[in-house]
Every structure is written in structure tokens, then in C-alpha cells.
Amino acid sequence: MPTLETTVNGLRLPNPFVIASGPPGTNGNVIGKAFDEGWGAVVCKTISLHADKVVNVQPRYARLRARGSDEVIGWENIELISDRPFATWLQEFRDIKARYPDRVLVASIMEEYSRAAWVEIVERCQTAGVDALELNFSCPHGLPERRMGSAMGENPELLAEVAEWANAAASVPVWAKLTPNVTHVEEAGRAALAAGCEGLSAINTLRCILGVDLETLRPEPNVEGYTTPGGYSSRAVMPIALRMTMELSRLIRAESPQATLQGIGGVETGSDAAQFLLLGADTVQVCTGVMKFGYRLVHELTASLLAFMQRHGFERLDDFRGHSLQYVTTHADLVRRQAAARQTRRHEQEQSGMIRDDAHWSGDAFVDQSDALARG
Ligand SMILES: Cc1cc2nc3c(=O)[nH]c(=O)nc-3n(C[C@H](O)[C@H](O)[C@H](O)COP(=O)(O)O)c2cc1C
Known about the structure:
four-stranded antiparallel β-sheet, alpha/beta, 12 helices, TIM Barrel
């Protein structure tokens, strides 16, 4: 029987499924529920020293459904970090660690551009017993107006400076949570690792406007008639998250092989998780999936990841972690490989209905031609 047990930065997890920072880790009650159901670790909702500055609005979510179906494929939120007092959180950290001493609790933290504030939040969280810290450099809405969140994550120098402050004060492992709202995520990853972070978490949400209501002509989510760009998550973001997982895995393997990677974005099934692991993630975090399906989702996640491993004869996660990275190459290399393969497959190619060059696209057969060129 394969095992899902894994060790990440010295922390032992029963499985790689981690609650991502957000509503599913928003207070001691729900964190306890996550551990009871079997989640491998929990990252709490992002906290700060002064929750009184955090004022949320309603509604704060908007959902995109697949055409002709009720299935939610995209989810926008304009939720801020936790609005619960820091002292309450510290007490809950102590209580949770007393109740679940063997389970891994990660504090997601965010502060303004102040060395004293970052040192204080790091020291007080670790004194309360958390096992690791995740620095939120990535929340794309609301907080950047205070130069927090992705305002730091989009600027590698600023990120490095703040991550150095946090690492100098930290005695537990530190992960930097990165924003996808940049052109080259590796630049932020490299800055975080150089600043001493033991791991990277990616991705946070993508800045979006979910849609415009064609009756009211107002964008959603509509708060008193107005909106503000928010963070996009759920199934629709998984391909972007996989690409960034690949890029960050390669960075880690080339430059900081001891560092770990927490893959995040759209995970709802064990098959989704297997893809993040195949591209080099050490753990897989889930937020919106829990909001859609509840904490018991972890049962399906573990069962179907185990079934995948059994099908391939993998005993441990390390048997396949990063396996698929070798198959990602440049376009020029694809051209070379296809030219070589075509020598032996000429007849097959001619029968397939695939266009051979752009002169063959035709207006009448356009959809069929697109279809013949596609996978899935
Ligand atoms: C409602 C909501 C609130 C979130 N709050 C936080 C947060 O406080 N801190 C954080 O680092 N990420 C936060 N996130 C981002 C998630 O942790 C995660 O990075 C992102 O949603 C992509 O994963 P998913 O598709 O599994 O949700 C939030 C996401 C959602 C949907």
C-alpha cells in the first residue's frame, strides 16, 4: 500500500493536502474541523497585528459558472485579511497546538513596510507555538492600497528586504507566498530564497473583474453599485498555477535544492493534486475547493491520489515528484523533435486532417481543423 506521508522542511505531514490561507482556516473552530477530517496541515487566514484596520464589505465573492451548467469554475473574492484581533489568534494557536500537538499549523502573516512590525508578528506567532510561517506577499486587492500583500510581492527588492527581516527573527521554517500577477514569478521566488525562506507557496489569486451584469450594467461583485478588482481562484486558474509550479520547481532544483514548494490553485481532486506533484510541488494547498465542497473533500483527495499511485506502482510521493518536468521544453525543441518523428509518421500525419501549415486553414472547415489540432 503506498503512503502519502511526507516531510516538508522537517515538518511531518500525514498527507500533502494543506488548507490554504483563507476562509477554511479562519478561526480555531474550523481549523480543528480540518484536522479532524484529516488535512495534512493548515495555513490560517492571513493575520496582522492591527485587525481594527481591516474592514470587509458584502457581498465579497462572485462566481463564474460553466456555460449551460451550474458548475462553478471561477471564483472572485474581494475579502481582506482576517478582521479578528491578533490576541485572539495567539490564544487560538495555543489552544489548537494543545489539542493537536502532532499536527502542522502554519501562520500566514502580513504587515506594513516596517521592520519592527514584521519582527513583532514573527516572534509573537512562533512563541504561540505555530510550526511554520507563510509570508503573504500576494493578496491582490485592498491591502496593496496600504503597500501590503502583492504590493510587496510584485517588487523583488522590497520582497527580499521584508523577507530578510522576517527570517532574521524566525526560528521556524518560513515560506513566501507569491503573487501570479507578475510576468516572471521566478524573480520573486529567487528574491525570497536569497532572503532565507525555506519554501515558496504559489499561487495566490489573479487580479480580475468577474463579469458585468447586463441588466444593471454594474460589474460584479456589486457593492452598493460599485466594484473593485478582486482575486480570481478555483478550477479556472489551475493551468496558470501549474505553469508557475513548473517554473518555481526548476528554480528551486537549480539554485536552492533544499527549499520546498507548496502548489496552489484550483485543486479539487486527487488527480489535480497529482499534476502539481508531477511538476515538482511538495505539498498542495486548497482554498476554494473547501468552500465549494467542504472539509470532507480531503477524503476524496487522499483516496484518488492513492489510487493514482497504485496504478503506477509508486510507493511514496518522492517516487514521482517532479517526474513530468523533464517533458517541458522550448518550442524550438518541439519543432526539432516533431521533424524527426515525422520522418517515420508521414502517412499517419497525412490521414489525420491536421493542417500542415497556416495556408491550409479554411473558413468552412475551421472548427474541425481547430479540433484536429487540439488535445483533450
Ligand atoms: C475567499 C478567499 C480568501 C482568501 N484569503 C487569503 C488570505 O487571507 N491569505 C492568503 O495568502 N491567500 C488567501 N486566499 C488565496 C488562497 O489561499 C489561494 O492562494 C487561491 O485562492 C488559489 O487557490 P484555490 O483555487 O484553491 O482557492 C484567499 C482565497 C479566497 C478564495
